[in-house]
Amino acid sequence: MRIGLEIHVQLPTRSKLFCGCSTAGEAPNSSVCPICLGFPGSRPFLNRRALEMGVLIAKFLNCRVADTVSFARKTYFYPDLAKNFQITQYDTPVGSDGHFMIGEKRVGIWRAHIEEDPGRIKRVGRAGEELGLVDYNRSGIPLVEIVTAPDLSSPAEARDFLTDLVIELRHLIGVTGEDQNMRVDANISVGEERVEIKNITGLRNVEKGLRAEATRQTKMLAAGKRIVRETRHFDESRGVTLPGREKEFEEDYGYIGEPDLGTYRIGPLAASMAVPETPLVRAARLQREHGIGAPAARQIVLTDWELADLFEVLAAQVGGDAAMSWTMGAIGSNWKGLRERAGEHRKDIIGIVAAVTAGEMTDSEGRMRLAALSTGEEVGAAEEGGDLDVLIAGLVDQHPEVVKDYRSNERAANFLIGQVMKATKGQYSSKIVAERMRKELEKRF
Ligand SMILES: [Zn+2]
Q1: Is residue 381 very low, low, confident or very high in pLDDT (cuts 50, 70, 90)?
Q2: How far is the CA of 136 from the centre of ligand 1 (A)?
Q3: What residues have CB less than 8 Å from 402, skipping those under 6 apart?
Q4: Same domain for 404 and 427?
Q5: Which residues contact 378 (CB under 8 A, 6 or more apart)?
Q6: Which residue range forms the structural domain that includes residue 387?
Q7: Which of 6, 37, 251, 332 has the lowest CB atom count within 10 Å?
Q8: Residues near ion ligand 1 (Cβ under 5 Å)
């Protein structure tokens, strides 16, 4: 089974790709102008931010970035396309010949190009008497289209690919709401001929749609029937794919160069642009540098970027394994509270883990202290110990027999130390408590 994906991702710009209209229009047709409706005499102008995002994505996908790019008109008729053509990139996509890794598997990226979205058609009315309402707010919304090689070998793998891609793109350009802002066309061939399932939204639907189509093709082939090259749609409610129009070939669209836009030299821009480290790239690095497992590295990074920051500092001090078990254990489970105070208490958190690792504090004490930190209980007082001394003095007053026993056996103090630890709920390390207790007892000699 071979699966290839064409993924349309909305680029989160404030204005549209070729005009100044807002991308946040809500009421139907409230965010439109002569340019995005293609009125006579209107001229498109390119949104620089969208171009930059496209270049960044192409670089991230290990693509060869073209030195100059231009745009093309893809001509076809549909009511959601007021101009009768869509402005896209044809022979000079921003990126080509890249790849994306899912775990150890390399998935080829044929191209990444920038294009505008058409409008939206909403069907209303009873079946058989439906009317189509058209909303051009989306007309001209910037998209990047990423086309993969047919390297994916199962519907589940296709979903894994998209899941990972969304994680990375969200970090890279701030894509949000994967379901609304990501549309997928999926090509799948069980035998020789491939079928395209158009316009699937949602990662789960991609997997479901591909499964349904794989089953259909397998049954057809088993029955000795021929698979026709065509475009189908996934009917979510029935869980089957249904035929659409016969597949057009790219040449049917009669691409011509867009005469109203120039050529753009992006080579220098691409050369000067640094791709920031993305979550899964970071997870792979943590795995490599600190010898932790892939699932653990992924969990730490995906829980929170700052948790991963803390992990890295800890790992440098106490080693990867200890850092991982604390990060995924007591620190991770108290992270919500710790995160709010992570800035001011970072040193305390590291100090606790370092003390436990060095054997100066017990494991359970460390956990208690982290829990106390996350709820904001006083910890800084441990250094001063004012309240602690009062508490200890009171306890020693109540137990004169311990003072007596302590003269001959220092371990007699353990009973009182335990009482203090219990009363202070792990606010102070046992080392500090023991030291203060010794001072207090020795005062009484
Ligand atoms: Zn406009």
Answers
A1: very low
A2: 9
A3: 396, 412, 413, 415, 416, 441
A4: yes
A5: 427
A6: 383-443
A7: 251
A8: 19, 21, 33, 35-36
